[in-house]
Design goal:
The chain is α+β, with helices and mostly antiparallel strands. The protein is about 35% helix and about 10% strand.
Length: about 200
């Protein structure tokens, strides 16, 4: 009997893998079509515009610190220490060593270059894009960054279709929380007519 009941889930899993993988593959193809023109065409577009990056905070808890978000970006302003001495000049790409020093300054936000504010006529420039994550240096001219972005979006889509929740992709950075954890101790009082669900265990 249990064997017969389990056959529904098995068949549905096989059908999902066969049918819905094609849908996510088609999504990747369409994303590549619209993003294929985004190519690194020059070293520096010379823009003075930037975006301000801050830590991602949810409910008083830091989800992603500023240091993680600015790694590999090019700064759009001079970074000074507490004495007013310039640590890093405008146009410097932030690497692992720079992040450690910036962490010590306890900055709340930082202005960095971004592809959204790039003023290149076609595509983007190296300074606005930032680091080539595969090689660890500033991205070279001719790199098809639009296709890389499209594939980064499409890859977790295919994995989620097959219900393979592997951690480490571009989209699945963390699993959803199923519990509320407080930082402070205390007591919670419920009313007497509260409705509850009792587990069999």
């Amino acid at each position: 009997m249990q064997y017969f009941i389990s056959t529904h889930g098995a068949r549905k899993g096989l059908a999902d893998t066969a049918l819905k993988t094609a849908n996510s593959g088609y999504l990747t193809r369409r994303l590549c079509d619209v993003a294929m023109d985004s190519v690194v065409i020059e070293e520096d577009c010379g823009t003075e515009q930037s975006i301000s990056i801050t830590s991602i905070i949810d409910g008083g808890e830091i989800i992603q610190p500023l240091s993680e978000r600015i790694l590999g970006r090019v700064i759009a302003e001079d970074i000074k220490d507490d004495d007013g001495k310039i640590l890093y000049e405008k146009g410097h790409m932030i690497d692992e060593d720079s992040v450690l020093k910036i962490d010590e300054l306890n900055l709340s936000s930082l202005n960095v270059r971004s592809p959204m504010t790039c003023e290149s006529t076609y595509g983007v420039c190296s300074k606005c894009y930032g680091r080539d994550l595969a090689r660890g240096h500033l991205v070279h001219r001719g790199e098809a960054v639009g296709v890389v972005a499209a594939q980064s979006i499409g890859e977790p889509g295919t994995q989620l279709t097959m219900r393979t929740f592997h951690i480490g992709g571009a989209a699945s950075s963390s699993s959803e929380d199923n519990a509320v954890i407080t930082e402070n101790a205390g007591q919670i009082k419920f009313s007497e007519d509260i409705k509850t669900v009792v587990n069999k265990d």
